[in-house]
Write a structure and sequence with these properties.
Number of strands: 18
Radius of gyration: 22 Å
Structural class: alpha+beta
Mean pLDDT: 90
Number of helices: 10
CATH architecture of the largest domain: 2-Layer Sandwich
CATH superfamily of the largest domain: ATP-grasp fold, B domain
Order of helices and strands: EHEEHEHEHHEHEEHEEEEEHEEHEEEH
Helix content: 25-40%
CATH topology of the largest domain: D-amino Acid Aminotransferase, Chain A, domain 1
Largest sheet: 9 strands, antiparallel
Strand content: 25-35%
Low-confidence stretches: 1-5
Distance between the termini: 58 Å
Length: about 400
């Protein structure tokens, strides 16, 4: 192990799969990651000998971490900025809390995009004292669908409700949605529904000196609001180069305005009329950037470290075609037992998260595959999807066998 920075210990605030992959890439740069976790068997805890036991929203636990590291990064934007600042050590954390506060709130994101002149859907605040009345007014006066969103704590399709009319069913759904938000003390806002042809994403990294690099624009596919697969580069798959350039400009504006240091992600909708519309921004490494681990470039995780350490940023150009397939828990399979990593995927790169328990749609790992010719993408996609299907069926069979064993002989 070597040290090129003079900063041996860096903290990771969070302990999930993103923290795990950040920790693994830290070692190659001579760092000793220190993970803040409540469970040493968490995905990140498994690969980090140095941990601080605690919770990401506790001022005391955050102080315990920050007091023994040279700097720290976040795994998720859903951190308590007040608790971070109360430690008196928030200047050690990247990105800065001023940026986190904006990007952890989707309504504030919308205002930011509007101020920067970056295309996004129209949005509407709701009267906190009469949210149901405000929603009823919107659905009554609008001839197009609207979307209700949690301003905070919404991810992977959670905290999102599409209302397509003013009928009783939509009113009931909206009432339940608003009641949940009220109980959780979450603000809700509305935005226009965007009819889109494709969902796209771009990962960017910005250094301490303001240098910014972007990976190629990618196509993302969702299942029940959860990213299922990513393919790219998008320009090799029929997306116009001008669209990628527009995405790069949006990333540059966002990164510069907020003074972001590190990796961040911007998700887009591409409409049938060819408009590129920003959906959401994440100030961290992101699921849509996992391809970078094997696509012939420096991974988003290593480049995140390079950025916060003040090192030169690594290359972001990629192979002619790549694919990332999330390994999602199959439908109707819920177990406290650990799932098993895929077998028979020798031509692919398996990234396993070591999570305990399996449930429908839960991210348990991902497969990366790379081709040096975009012409071969059909065969590669088929191979990855076949491996994914086999893996899901194996998990189902394991679950059924375990259930039958519990029942005993009939």
């Amino acid at each position: 192990m070597f040290d090129i920075t003079g900063q041996k210990r860096w903290g990771i605030i969070g302990d999930g799969q993103l923290a795990r992959m950040l920790a693994l890439d830290a070692y190659a740069l001579g760092l000793r990651p220190v993970v803040l976790t409540g469970d040493s068997s968490s995905p990140a805890g498994q690969v980090s000998p140095l941990v601080v036991r605690g919770h990401v929203d506790s001022r005391e636990d955050l102080h315990a971490l920050l007091s023994q590291v040279d700097g720290a990064i976040i795994e998720s934007e859903f951190v308590d900025c007040d608790a971070l600042e109360a430690t008196g050590l928030a200047e050690k954390v990247y990105p800065r809390t001023s940026a986190i506060r904006i990007l952890q709130n989707k309504f504030e994101q919308k205002k930011l995009l509007e101020s920067l002149g970056v295309k996004s859907s129209s949005f509407y605040p709701l009267d906190k004292k009469n949210m149901e009345g405000a929603v009823a007014s919107l659905t009554h006066n609008f001839t197009k669908p609207i979307v209700l969103k949690f301003a905070t704590f919404g991810y992977d399709g959670k905290g999102v409700l599409v209302l397509r009319g003013s009928g009783q069913r939509d009113q009931d759904l909206a009432g339940d949605f608003l009641l949940t938000a009220t109980k959780r003390r979450i603000d809700v806002y509305a935005e226009d529904f965007v009819g889109f042809d494709r969902e796209l994403a771009m990962i960017a990294v910005r250094g301490r000196d303001g240098t910014i690099k972007t990976w190629p624009l990618v196509i993302t596919e969702q299942k029940s609001g959860v990213c299922e697969r990513v393919t790219g580069p998008a320009v090799s798959l029929g997306i116009k180069k001008e669209i990628e350039t527009e995405a790069q400009i949006a990333c540059e504006k966002i990164g510069a305005h907020l003074g972001l240091v590190g990796v961040f992600a911007v998700e887009f909708f591409l409409t049938s009329s060819g408009d590129l519309v920003v959906n959401e921004i994440a100030p961290r490494v992101h699921n849509s950037g996992h391809f970078s681990q094997n696509a012939g470039c420096v991974s988003q995780f290593e480049n995140h470290w390079r950025a916060v350490l003040g090192l030169s940023l690594g290359r972001t150009d990629t192979a002619p075609f790549f694919m990332m397939q999330n390994l999602l828990g199959p439908a109707e399979v819920t177990s406290k037992d650990c799932a098993q990593a895929p077998r028979g995927a020798e031509s692919m790169h398996v990234h396993w998260y070591g999570k305990r328990g399996i449930s429908p749609g839960r991210k348990l790992g991902h497969l990366n595959a790379v081709s040096h010719s975009v012409d071969n993408r059909g065969d590669l996609i088929s191979a990855v999807q076949s491996a994914y299907g086999r893996w899901q069926e194996e998990q189902r069979q394991m679950f059924l066998n375990a259930q039958n064993a519990q029942k005993g002989p009939s």
